[in-house]
Amino acid sequence: MTADSQDDDFVFVSLSKISPGRELPSSIFLKINGKYLKYKNEGDILDSDKFNFFMSKNVKGIYIDNSESGKFNTWVGEKKEEVIQEMVDEVGEENRDIVEKRENIAETVFETFSDEHLSTETVELLQEQVEEFIQIVSKKKEATQVLAKITKLSQSVAEHSVNTAQIALYLGMVCGHGHPNVLENIYLGALFHDYAKAKIPANVLENPNNAMYSQAIQDHPKKGVDALKKIGGLQDPVLTIVLQHHEQHNGQGFPKGLKDKEIYELTKIVTIANIVDGVLCEEKNRSEETYEKAIKILEYDRGKQFDPELIPRCTDALRLAFAGYERERES
Ligand SMILES: [Fe+2]
Ligand SMILES: [Fe+2]
Questions:
Q1: How far apart are CA 268 and CA 260, in angstroms?
Q2: How far is the CA of 134 from the centre of ligand 2 (A)?
Q3: Among 10-19, 68-77, 93-102, 104-113, where is mean pLDDT lowest?
Q4: In this structure, which ligand is nearest to the CA of 217?
Q5: What distance in Å separates the CA atoms of residue 158 and residue 139, rounded to the nearest whole number?
Q6: Domains in the chain, please, with CATH?
Q7: How many angstroms does the Cα of residue 218 sit away from the middle of ligand 2?
Q8: Scanning 15, 42, 198, 318, which has the fewest C-beta atoms within 10 Å of its C-beta?
Q9: What's the 324 CA to ligand 2 centre distance in angstroms?
Q10: Ligand 1 center–CA 159 separation, angstroms
Q11: What is the pTM of this model?
Q12: Which ligand is nearest to the CA of 156?
């Protein structure tokens, strides 16, 4: 049998569609050096450890015999329905639509993350998912309440917060975060990161050379957390992002001088988004140079301000997104 004819006999199934720990409805195969090798039999279980091992090795999916694909897809569909139903039971039938969207977002993110190289198509798909997710999460009481307060205090901080949250969500997905709760924490952490900065009086904020300015900047992460705690209802990861958003990979940030793994992984994504939007905000009429400047800063500060492991993937993703903005601007 030639490799080609064997390819016709098997169908690829993305790992994102498979829930570990359930009995498989048919045998599954791995493609190794162009050959399909049986990995598990019908009725066997792909346990979580194996599943996580596949993910860590960038295995994108498994293969099934073509003739079994109907049966397998039914099994996949049933599980997805079960997961959705469990969530609907928790949050109410009126939220079914949102629950379904969140499931689809998680699936897309997983699938695009398993692509080693991002493409224009993947990026566009992720950006659509970002928009959808924002529509869902921005309606949350905490989000509207705090954003309204920020807007009242400072229009420019409010704009920066909204932009940073959008970029952070995109980069979060690009870095493989697909779980709705994780995405929500990234979004809210980024949206609220400068809450206390919005409270700094304009006469202090506009004078970077005076001592009050340095102190106010130094204090805003902690003060932001204190104020958000009073509002209540926010999860710890959101507060951690706010507290740490000026920490740097090399330990030279503030308020605590944390470094590398001491910094929460979701903070690292928000930190990148914060700097990118900071650069973009400097220019009213953005051009190719503005976008390139943002990327250059990330590359220059790789391993200094930013986690070196995150930068290549994030800069690839931003380059593709910026190229899309450029096309829109020119058309
Ligand atoms: Fe800040
Ligand atoms: Fe900021």
A1: 9
A2: 19
A3: 104-113
A4: 1
A5: 16
A6: 3-85 (no CATH), 93-330 (1.10.3210.10)
A7: 13
A8: 42
A9: 24
A10: 13
A11: 0.80
A12: 2
